[in-house]
What we know:
319 residues; Aminopeptidase; 8 helices; 27% helix
Amino acid sequence: MKTIPWDVSRLAEVVELWNKELGEEYPMRQELFNQNSLEDKNVLEDGCAMAVDDQNNIIGFIVAKKWQENVDIKMDSKRGWVQVILVDTNYRNKGLGTKLLNKAEETLKDHGIEEVQLGGDPFHYFSGVPLQFGETQQWVEKKGYVKRIDTYDMINHLSKNYSMPEDKTVSYSALQPDEKEEFLTFLNNSFPGRWEYEAIKYFESNGNGREFVVLKKNGRIIGFCRINDDASPTIAQNVYWSPSFTTKVGGIGPLGVDSSEQKQGYGLGIVQAAMVLLQERKVETIIIDWTILVDFYKKLDFDIWKGYGIYLKDLAGTN
Length: 319
């Protein structure tokens, strides 16, 4: 057994290992892995590695990231990510995982990273370590990672039809192509950072606006909600695991209302409007990813589906 540099030509083998270990809960597609772990500009190539057995079969891998996008977005340049670390069940408890993790951490530190997060990266798979993987959580805690909070994915199987919110003071609609610049300006003013970045990447992927519901008041955008389905220009995070379902899956989130317009019920309203648009597109199951607002979404019949622990490690004080 040994570790080797990342080899993009072995994508099919990596995906095969993923599905062997995680496919029942998190079915991986080559298209998705290519999008998130190969094409993302934030992948730190020298922090990634594979592990192979004596027959050169892939038995493990790790993907590390740091912020490298050349866009004017407020992101923490001192935080890096381990997007995924996976070792074949038959080769665990032999030090491979530790070797892979050490390589990623050392490389991230060499690139000026002071804090590492497990998951939660740009084009992430998981917001954190899945709660059902208790042994993994114990392992990363032994490696110096500290859990900050639990987050959840929620689900609604749409057993009933929803209607547009009744509020004549505002309107809800899908974003039109000619509203792109106004929308990006709104995000820059109200939600600078990750959500703005994701919208920019969306339009770079030839998005035309149908994936955003906008909330308007007096003709001005004051809120938004992202929606996704199988016709979206990229595979978005809340529809990653849609191969698990026989129904058509859609996703909701992120969403936000300008701070000056909050506490008026607009947040719940824009989620309901998003649900209506997804139902019009024949979506039968809706997933919301990476949230702590469990009680908020339960008001619209969402239930907890999956949970994750957000783990971080301080690299600044390590040798």
